[in-house]
Structures are given as C-alpha cells and as structure tokens.
Amino acid sequence: MPQVAECSECGNMRPLFKQCPHCGSSNLPRLLTDTIEVNLKLGQPLVEEAIENLGDHIRDAHALGIKAIVLIHGYGSSGEGGHIKRAVHQALEGNYFSDRVDDFYYGETVPYGSEGYHALIKRRPGLKAYLQRFKAGNAGITVLLLNTSSRSA
Ligand SMILES: [Zn+2]
After folding, report:
1. pTM value?
2. Cα 11 to middle of ligand 1, angstroms
3. Annotation: CATH topology of 33-146
4. CATH 3.30.1370.110 in the chain, residues?
5. Distance, CA of 82 to CA of 92 (rounded, Å)
6. CA 16 to ligand 1 center in whole angstroms
7. For 125-150, what is each residue's pLDDT tens digit?
8. Cα(63) to centroid of ligand 1, in Å?
C-alpha cells in the first residue's frame, strides 16, 4: 500500500491502519488521498478471515473519509485466491457491506480506456492512478465506492 497518511501527532508518514510506527499514536491519521488499496491476500488468510478483514477495512476507511478502495483479491482458478474473489463478490452482491459501500466495479469490467473506466474515473478521479495500468482490465481486483453522504465535513 502506498503511503497515504501522516500521523496527526508526530507528522511522520504512516500506514492508514493500526498505530503510528514512529510515536505509537493510535489517533486517526491525516489523509493525503481519498483512494486506498487493500490487499486481502496479505498474510494468506482463510476466506472467512479475509471477509472479516474486509469489513474492518471498509469501516475504518469510511470513518476516515476514504472515497474509494481498490481491493486486491486475486483470481486464481484454484486455491484461496479464487475462493476469496468468489466470497467478496457474494458479500457485495448480497449487500453485506451496503451500509458503507455505494457501488462496486469488478476489475474485469473497467479496463483502461473503456466506457466503464471513464464513468468510474469521473466519479472518483483518485482511481486513475490505480487503474490506468490495467489495459485489459484486472480480474484480480474490485473497486469499491464508499458512501460519503453520511459524513459531516
Ligand atoms: Zn506518529
């Protein structure tokens, strides 16, 4: 994950989630972007763990004011990658995260330069930097658009 936040206490760059590695602060960091990447395969979790982690990430990202999440789940035809992708699709289509996720786009439906891509970039310009490298789409990712309406400025 690129560095997207700075510590609200010591001002150093820090990861979005968990504590500041510099000063140990667990306060919410200051955001430097409205788009983040989350890799669900990190640590090779079981499918249930991956979906649970996703729920945590969505909740935290929403609380921070993040507007879009580029979700990396892999697409292996066998093995955990494929299982996680299927579980993510099921959860999204079952409105499992609909209290915070407004919309979602499977990577294979938004290849760079396509109509879907342009429509998506128009809604969330911050996604351009993440998606422009996928000329033929990317079946291993899903883009989540978080709702921002319930958040007071
Ligand atoms: Zn700090």
Report:
1. 0.83
2. 6
3. Ribosomal Protein S8; Chain: A, domain 1 (3.30.1370)
4. 33-146
5. 15
6. 11
7. 999 999 999 999 999 999 999 998 65
8. 19
